[in-house]
Design goal:
Layout (H helix, E strand, L loop, with lengths): L14 H8 L3 E5 L4 H24 L9 H11 L17 E6 L2 E6 H19 L3 E5 L5 H9 L4 E6 L2 H10 L7 H6 L14 E4 L12 E7 L9 H11 E9 L8 H10 L15 E6 L4 E2 L5 E6 L9
Parallel strand pairs: 4-5, 4-7, 5-6, 7-8
Antiparallel strand pairs: 1-3, 2-3, 2-10, 8-11, 9-11
Helix pairs in contact: 1-4, 2-9, 4-5
The chain binds S-adenosylmethionine.
S-adenosylmethionine binds next to helix 3, helix 5 and strand 5.
Length: 316
């Protein structure tokens, strides 16, 4: 698969924009020889080695695979109404991990990742001009909440497996308007502070999306297929089925994790190992794949826009 440079993708995103959005969530930039950085990488790699050994020996056991129960257990603990405070630009910083981007090294929070990914989603929507949009595996719904606030005329829907993930945005929707700290986190501001209240959140399984064929013009996922290695083809097939045309995936495709520590990490955690080059067999023809944005050092992602061959909007 040939990757497209961000500047050549036609999305109109400058590297500087991404850097500016990410910066508030960077704890520190690492330059030159840095013992703390080296120690942190070594610590993480020891953990990966241990986990992948365990998986190699005990991989046949149910508990060693990323089943629906594993996901439910992990993410039921992750999502709660409290999480939205993580997006406060002036608030606490959570989940610091090592990131790289070209020759830059950074210790940063994944909340910064959500913020620059939002800009990618906005530019994809501006390019495709969909009327109905679905996010699969939407977690606490932050991507949708921000998108609805920027595109109030679009119908947004989200499907999430966990009760906790489903309940968090429902509770937020009871507020009279989008809290200011979430509006401030939005990369390009918000146009309508009530629009998030209209998002249709559903609790459901990506393996069996509760929608008729072609219900959405754009179906996307952000680090959600990541969790679905055991149902990979079904989930991708479902995304293609309920879309009339476009699918956008920001996921740890095998092409960006196929060697070194990222490959071992994906194996150890039983994360998604789908290949971009295998998407056409599922009815998803890649239009571009981008990977030049900040990346977690041990789990890389690619942003892929795919179209259904022959769909009316393909080529837009
Ligand atoms: C890493 S989180 C990403 C959440 C969200 N997309 C975001 O960008 O913030 C992965 C999410 O996928 C959800 N998920 C995993 N397997 C799923 C499935 N089979 N059906 C629906 N959601 C699923 C998890 O519950 C979790 O909320």
């Amino acid at each position: 698969m040939k990757f497209t440079e961000l500047a050549e993708s036609g999305l109109g995103i400058e590297k500087d924009e991404i850097a500016t959005l990410f910066e508030p969530f960077v704890e520190r930039h690492v330059t030159g020889r840095d013992e703390a950085w080296d120690d942190e990488i070594a610590r993480r790699e020891r953990k990966i080695r241990k986990k992948s050994r365990r998986r190699r020996w005990f991989g046949f056991l149910k508990g060693a695979r990323r089943t629906r129960d594993t996901v439910l257990e992990e993410y039921s603990r992750s999502w709660g109404p409290d999480n939205y405070r993580d997006y406060d630009l002036g608030g606490r910083r959570v989940r610091m991990t090592p990131w790289v981007w070209g020759d830059q090294r950074m210790i940063a929070s994944d909340v910064g990742g959500t913020r620059f990914r939002q800009l990618l989603l906005i530019r994809v929507i501006e390019r495709l001009r969909p009327r109905r949009v679905l996010e699969v595996g939407c977690g606490n719904g932050i991507n949708l909440i921000l998108l609805a606030s920027y595109f109030p005329e679009i119908e947004f829907c989200g499907v999430e497996l966990t009760e906790a993930g489903f309940a968090a945005p429902k509770a937020l929707q009871a507020e009279s308007e989008l809290p200011g700290w979430i509006a401030d986190y939005a990369p390009l501001g918000v146009k309508d502070r009530q629009a998030f209240k209209r998002i249709d959140f559903r609790q459901g399984d990506a393996a069996e999306l509760p929608f008729a064929d072609g219900s959405f013009d754009l179906v996307y996922s952000v680090l959600a297929l990541e969790q679905m290695e055991l149902i990979r083809e079904r989930a991708l097939g479902e995304m293609a089925r309920v879309s009339t045309d476009a699918t956008f995936m920001f996921e740890p495709f095998r092409e960006v994790n196929d060697e070194g520590w990222p490959a071992r990490y994906v194996y150890a955690r039983n994360y998604f190992r789908g290949r971009i080059e295998d998407l056409p067999a599922l009815g998803l023809k890649p239009e571009f794949a981008i990977r030049d944005f900040p990346q977690e050092i041990h789990l890389r992602a690619a942003a892929v826009l795919a179209r259904k061959p022959g769909a009316a909007g393909a080529g837009r």
